[in-house]
Design brief:
alpha/beta, 222 residues, 48% helix, single chain, two-stranded antiparallel sheet, Rossmann fold, 7 strands
Length: 222
């Protein structure tokens, strides 16, 4: 991301396509796609100081405090693979997280982030999320409305039986959107005021969204 924002943040509600695009763009740019969930699991598995603090909290099923999560984020950004940039998908989730992440980025020399907000109509989001199934073997993701597997319930790639995450069930989807609106929507205003947010139409096809993203990144010098 020569001379431009090295920190990319993909912001948007569940089903907006953040994860799919983050994987694509990260591969194109040769930078890591960062997930706080992965960081937590890795820290626990490796028995780091923060991992030891997080483990009993995670074992209880409670939310890990921001102080631990952001500590892990700062540690992760110090690794060599983040030197040329990185993409956060679904983080930060709250205003306090965003404010502290900004301080970390400045402290570590990354400067201001470039924030991409995926905007998608609610009815489209509901279909995307409630129709989403994945393969536990290879991680392939399908959607019964938009990208169905060739054989219902079976992964095209390895023949694994597809599963649906509990929080992708239709009865839970609307509450997830309500939680997003309460907690994460204020981030749009925060980043917009700072002049670092670009909004895109996440309701377009996957390839069209990728082209739009590449156009934004090219203008930004990434």
């Amino acid at each position: 991301m020569a001379g431009a924002a090295k920190a990319l943040i993909f912001l948007g509600p569940p089903g907006a396509g953040k994860g799919t695009q983050a994987k694509r763009i990260a591969k194109e740019l040769g930078v890591p796609h960062l997930s706080t969930g992965d960081m937590l699991r890795e820290a626990v598995a490796n028995g780091t100081a923060l991992g030891k603090q997080a483990k009993p909290i995670m074992d209880r099923g409670d939310l890990v405090p921001d102080s631990i999560v952001l500590g892990m984020v700062e540690e992760r950004l110090q690794r060599p693979d983040c030197g040329n940039g990185f993409i956060f998908d679904g983080f930060p989730r709250t205003l306090p997280q965003a404010e502290e992440l900004d301080r970390i980025l400045v402290r570590r020399g990354f400067g201001n982030p470039l924030v991409i907000e995926f905007q998608v109509a609610e009815d489209t989001l509901i279909k995307r999320v409630s129709g989403r199934w994945s393969c536990p073997v290879g991680g392939e993701t399908y959607n019964v409305y938009e990208r169905a597997p060739k054989v219902p319930g079976i992964c095209d790639v390895d023949g694994g039986k597809l599963v649906q995450r509990n929080d992708d069930r239709p009865e839970i989807v609307k509450e997830r959107f309500a939680a997003y609106a309460r907690q994460t929507m204020p981030l749009s205003q925060y980043y917009r005021k700072r002049g670092v947010l670009k909004a895109i139409d996440g309701g377009l096809g996957v390839d069209d969204v990728t082209r739009t993203l590449n156009g934004i990144l090219n203008v930004a010098g990434a």
